[in-house]
Amino acid sequence: MTAEPATAPRIVTPYPGPEARRVIDRMRAVEGAGPRTGGTDDPLVVAEAHGATLVDPDGNEFVDLAASFAAANVGHSHPDVVEAIRDQAGRMSHVSSAFASEPRVAFEEALLDIAPPGLDRVLLGLSGADANDTALRLARSLTGRREVIAFSGGYFGRSSGVIGLNGKSAHRVRVARDADAHFVPFPYPYRWPLGRAEDASEQALGLVRHALEDPASGFGPVAAIVVEPVQGNGGIVIPPDGFLQGLRDLCDRHGIVLVFDEIQAGFGRTGRLWAGEHWGVVPDLMTVGKGIGGGMALSAVVGRRDLMRHWPPGTHTSTFMGNAVNLAAGRAAIDVMRRDRLWERSERIGAALRQSLADLADSPQVGEVRGLGLFIGIELVTDDASRAPDPARASAIRRAAFERGVLVGIAGHADNVLKICPPLTIDERLLDTAVGVLVESIKGAS
Ligand code: PLP
Are 272 and 344 a contacting pair, CB within 8 Å? Predict the structure, then answer.
């Protein structure tokens, strides 16, 4: 196995080079328009991925500050994960979810070992959307109610079961909003639509309380409140203190299932194992995905035993849910996370990084630099006074950084937030170099 190159970022030929071009053309022929990467017109063709470095077929080396949709928490192709995959694939790669297996139980035990207190049962899945689907089905069958409260800027995936809960219309790709979903503004201090930022949490909770307690609010009986403890695709939005606890209290009072989606914000990303820990709030159900599979397709719902007991045996099945190779990779990723205490690394490196970026906020075009751990957003605006989102500037910066070999994500209601969420294992010098390129790209766009 090739180790992470120590030379990134390194551009040896303007992207796309001839080898990448060939792959892109073949892909377009079979997929149509297909994806795009880094603000360019083409996708990045990745030939190798190690740690925080992506190598294209022409030998360009990119630093991945986006961690492949914030999923490479333990880094790309972590040697322990690769070893676990090889070993498991040679023994038994797959049996259906109707079977038990050692890798399945070992992953589930490892996940429960790191789960918040009181969450002691697991249901497996293959993607984040899949886990959220399961959580929603469970909440509805448990309560006998259908309606759900979700929040502006929230993102839960693209399966038919949850796509209607996504706050952003572009993320619903013309699928109707879920008829049973109600949206409340997420307390987003920088952009709170109802007045002073300091009041955001109390006012958002007030709206939820009104929805639940006024018989004429227009809401029916609510099964679940579904929320990301820190919003990812919404723009790295951190709720004020008291908000999640307020939701917890309302759920307790009204017999509603509180679901935390920790698919992006969890697994060490924010400097805690789970983002909800920042406020000491434990949900009834927690969904996990992305990094938990160490690079393989794996997700889960973790929940309280009394809620998870509700379904009869055999209710929760899918062909690949018990895939042994995915589960072995997930177990290895959890072992790496625990052994290297990557959430502490995320906290330490993330705090230093935010400190080094703080000056950027002096620019009238940088509205806010915010984050927790290695989950950092830089919100771009046309000017300080209007705070009007500036997606064009975000896209230009992203492209300029890409051309110099650095990948960053884009998030936010109007795609105007640069998202820095590298692998939690990233070499600190590599991170410094890559962030240096990003900062120059930001300054160059001003
Ligand atoms: N939930 C959150 C918070 C996410 O960020 C995502 C993906 O970006 C999902 C759910 C959906 O996960 P997947 O793409 O694995 O279905």
Answer: no
